[in-house]
Amino acid sequence: MQQMATVPGGEELSLAERAYRAIRDRLVMLEIRPGAPINEEQLAQSLGVGRTPVREALKRLQYERMITTYPRRGTFATDVNITDLAHISEVRQELEPLAAAQAARRATATDRTALTALHRELDGAGASGQHPAELMHLDLQVHRAIYAATHNPYLEDTLVRHDNLATRIWCLFVDRLSDMAGHVEEHGPLIEAIVAGDPDRAARLARSHVEGFERAVRAAI
Fold first, then answer.
1. 3 state DSSP class of 170
2. CB neighbours (10 Å) of residue 6?
3. What is the residue-wise DSSP string for 3-15?
4. Is the distance from CB of 142 to CB of 122 less than 8 angstroms?
5. How many Å separate Cα 38 from the centre of its chain?
6. Where are the alpha helices (DSSP H) in 107-179?
7. 79-112 pLDDT, tens per residue?
8. Residue 5 pairs with which residues in a beta bridge?
9. What are residue 81's phi and psi, to 5 degrees?
10. What is the pTM of this model?
């Protein structure tokens, strides 16, 4: 029977799931740089797990286009290709508004409490002078909380994957992006619309946010 790990909130995760989330976020935040080799043994040691959970995690990450394996060469973090931005944005421009609207309709009391807590973190994020990496972690948390509030696991999985890929592009150009804190703080009105149960407003704000992200990245290139 596979060991379980407990995370904040009492949620139990398998070791493979814990390895997956940790490696995924290292790739998303470019802590594992694009094109870098993936060493199973080193990852297992750094995460304090065996190689089997790491191997299972890497299989998922290959499917999600975060890593790639070449015969006789090994496994590497995928490159961040700016030409992918248009394809990723095309998907997100359709699905992010849908997710925001469904979250506004379906969010439970627990979801609304979690989103309200994130809203408080967003307040003054720029004024507090948070490091760009902290702002990006907060951005990921907000997006993932909204996707979870849709209570549609297929929609959630799809958007998490595409948001991860979009965030890798963002991280690549973070030093050239202006008003990053403002981009993150845009989530405030979106969260308010979801918590208030206003699907139409939530959808409009979500679409505007995705379009703004693409413009900001293209301006930074």
1. helix
2. 10
3. -EEE-TTS-EEEH
4. yes
5. 20
6. 109-122, 132-149, 153-172
7. 988 889 999 999 999 999 999 999 999 999 999 9
8. 13
9. -110, 115
10. 0.87
How far is 12 from 143, CA to CA, in rounded Å?
A: 22
Q: Closest Cα to residue 88, out of 205, 210, 221?
A: 210
User: In the chain, where do the E strands start and end?
Assistant: 4-6, 12-14, 67-70, 74-77
Q: What's the maximum distance between 2 C-alpha atoms anywhere in the chain?
A: 54
- Residue 6: φ, ψ to 5°: -105, 135
| The residue count for the chain | 221
Question: Which class for 89: exposed (0-12), middle (13-18), buried (19 or more C-beta within 10 A)?
Answer: buried
Nearest residue to 25 via CA among 203, 164, 162, 217: 164
CA proximity to 194, closest of 95, 94, 116, 91:
116
* Tokens linked to 15: 């070791």
- Between CA 101 and CA 95 the distance in angstroms is 10
The whole-angstrom separation of Cα 6 and Cα 21 is: 13
**Which residues of the chain have a pLDDT value below 50?**
1-10
Q: Which amino acid is at 180?
A: M
Of the candidates 85, 90, 100, the residue with the CA atom closest to the CA atom of residue 204: 100
- Residue that has been written with the tokens 């951005």 in this structure: 139
For residue 120, CA distances in Å to 90, 130, 142 come to: 30, 14, 11
